[in-house]
Amino acid sequence: MSVHEAAVHWQHAPHTTDPNTYSRNHRVSLNGNQQVEVSASVEFKGDANCADPEQMLISAVSSCHMLFFLAIAEMQGFKVASYQDDPKGYLERNDKKGMAITRIELSPRITFSGDKAPDQKAIDNIHSKAHSNCFIRNSVTAEVTINSLPPAV
Q1: I want to staple 37 with a disulfide (CB 3.0 to 4.6 A). Which of 13, 41, 50, 61 is the partner?
Q2: Within its chain, how far is the Cα of 58 from the centroid?
Q3: Contacts of 47 (CB under 8 A, 6+ apart)
């Protein structure tokens, strides 16, 4: 249905704190000329001032879930005023004796406006539909859970 592209560029440079290895810093270019500075996570000699691939993965799952949530809420006549999430991903040993993001926890906080406000059952239903339709969530093997909080007033 669609093709999605990015460009990843890395150039050899010395590591800033470990002379025995190389810098993990690189740049990811996305549509619209966005440039994202990326590195390995700090635990793997990365730069704390850059995004790491694990953060980008969990933010992609969260963003995709949010976009589906917003669309479904709108189709049901609910107006979302704000949506915030602080997703967490857990890098752990998997059953193949390797490392993987095995679990992702979403904790969205949503504020609604307008005359029609959903109750918790309706919110949970929207989350369930968003969860099952999210392209990114359907593409990963990590368990994705949603800690649905009551809507902010």
Answers
A1: 50
A2: 3
A3: 16, 23, 24, 25, 37, 39
Render the burial of 19-32: b for 16+ CB within 10 Å, e for the rest.
eeeebbbbebeeee
Smallest Cα–Cα separation from 40: which of 5, 74, 91? 91
Is 18:42 a contact under the CB 8 Å cutoff?
Answer: no
- pLDDT, average across residues 5-32: 94
Please state, in angstroms and rounded to a whole number, the distance separating the CA atoms of residues 41 and 67: 27
Please tell me the pTM assigned to this model: 0.92
Helix (H) or strand (E) holding 111: strand 109-113
Rg (CA), the chain: 19
pLDDT per residue as tens digits for the range 73-104: 999 999 999 999 999 999 999 888 899 999 99
How many degrees, rounded to 5, is the angle at CA 12 between CA 11 and CA 14?
Answer: 135
CB neighbours of 12 closer than 8 A, spacing ≥ 6? 22, 23
